[in-house]
Please model this.
Amino acid sequence: MIELKTFPNGFRYLEIHNPHAHAKIALQGAHLFEYKAKGKPALLWCSDKAHFESGKAIRGGIPVCFPWFGKHKDDATLPQHGFGRTQEWTLVSQEEQADGSTSISLQLTPNAHTLSLWPFKFEATMHFSVGERLDVALEVKNTDSKPFELGAALHTYFLVSNIDNVSLYGFKDKVYYETLNNTKEIQKSELIIDKEIDRVYMNPEKTIILQDDTRKTTIEQTGSNSTIVWNPWTEKSKQLADMNDEGYKTFVCIETANALEDVRVLQPLQVHRLQAVYVQEGIVKN
Ligand code: TA6
Model:
């Protein structure tokens, strides 16, 4: 079942219920901010100080960074992570599948605002499959007569029991850029997080494993050769108005992306698909 719901301030979102899971997707940003599969813990973290207001990105869930990741490389006055997450997307298809999952697609095409920021014609479509697993894909088509450079990320905030219980696998021996101090390093072992990190891992394994105590989530990535891992830790958590001071303790961002040298140049009519499939396994401790 798919229902269109509205917060008292007019902010609109879709609520999906099926035999396997339920989810919520804001029309603004095609931003999935809640997903819970039956019998499993919620997959995603969302700040209890998150804004659900027009024009403000939601702190949590899966923000869609499009058509660039991070700061714009030529103009720092342009919005961080592009405009995709603050524009209203249009529901273009919905289908209850025979396996009980729900498929939903939302689309963004240029308007005066986007053209003022980024002078290219495009068709961006977010595809979701909500079921026992969560499948998320950003598909971008160049509908212009000239090529453009595409940066993007599925900026996913994963809920964890405690950041101290977390180990990430799939980055060993991989090069990463630590953007906090502009260094280029190599990951020597599994990744544990005991301080602020803001890293772009290049050519990670196609399957990333988030181990959180006895819980394990796998992230199957396609269309991407760069994955960002971010945790703001104490000081940054305090600085973020839409995050509690202790917010950093219960999430880690693992972002399937096309960032830095992994940005893609799309020729006219070319399509690029950036996809992540999230599968929760393991024993859930009470
Ligand atoms: O993905 C990591 C990052 O680029 C960090 O630098 C931090 O800024 C984070 O994104 C959140 O960005 P936001 O614009 O949502 O506050």
Notes: The chain is about 5% helix and 45% strand. The CA atoms of residues 141 and 206 lie 23 Å apart. The pocket of 6-O-phosphono-beta-D-tagatofuranose is lined by residues 57, 70, 80-81, 155, 198, 228, 230, 253, 255 (CB under 6 Å).
